[in-house]
């Protein structure tokens, strides 16, 4: 029998069976009686049987309900044992972890990542570094970072990498600028605008220069600014344009700016997770690797 019942439904079922009353079980489970009744009905629908029979005093199990109770007890015991085993595993991961990522990714990832990691591995002392990808790579090589997200435009052969995904770059401009009305803008046209970009140590800058070189186009910037916040502030003041993924602008919550797709060609950057080839990942770094990859799959 194909069934989509879950642990919560089984636990509610067992509580009702033991108490013999929906109202009494609702008080014990901190659920409203309608919510508890809905879970029971869902379970009955999925199992295609009636589990309870109403009486003057409450509810009693049907024959099918008795059968389900016997098997549910075994399933819940196994689920509890699994939860305990996973708790022990989480508590066994200790030590410290230094993790780095660029600000353009950190603005949309750091909060969720740290929250999930701390909840799962509370005994790990976590240090987070948001800085330019060139600085992150140097920290990986000198051992002051354990693992970091980088852009793949210029990765040292001394690092091991895992691809996380790619993101298209957009022109970021004020909503009242003429470019904001366009469905897209060519890369050549972008390079003719006053650009506010990070310095050459930044992976984004390296990618744009490489793209311009392949297209045989001249590349220059009006302002070099390594701070993402300052870049967006200056663009908002009408002092120029910058280039970022649209998700970064969205996560920055800056009013009055828009992201215009760049075409011919589309500048696209690969994000990778990197660590030193000379040092094996610690358990704390290994679970961070899995968590980062999972979050990237969701975005």
What does this structure look like?
The chain contains 11 helices and 12 strands. By secondary structure, it is α/β, with parallel strands linked by helices. The model has no long low-confidence stretch (mean pLDDT 89). It has 2 domains: 84 residues, Arc Repressor Mutant, subunit A (Orthogonal Bundle), CATH 1.10.10; 174 residues, D-Maltodextrin-Binding Protein, domain 2, CATH 3.40.190.290.
Task: Find the CATH topology of the largest domain.
Answer: D-Maltodextrin-Binding Protein, domain 2
Helix content: 40-55%
Task: Name the beta content range.
Answer: 15-25%
Number of strands: 12
Computed structural class: alpha/beta
Summarize this structure briefly:
Helices cover 47% and strands 22% of the residues.
Topology overview:
Elements: H1 7-19, H2 22-29, H3 33-47, E1 52-54, E2 59-61, H4 63-92, E3 95-101, H5 103-120, E4 124-130, H6 133-142, E5 147-151, E6 159-174, E7 185-186, H7 187-190, E8 196-197, H8 203-214, E9 223-224, H9 228-236, E10 242-245, H10 246-252, E11 257-263, E12 268-276, H11 283-298
Parallel strand pairs: 3-4, 3-5, 7-11, 8-9
Antiparallel strand pairs: 1-2, 5-12, 6-10, 6-11, 6-12
Helix pairs in contact: 1-2, 1-3, 1-4, 2-3, 5-10, 5-11
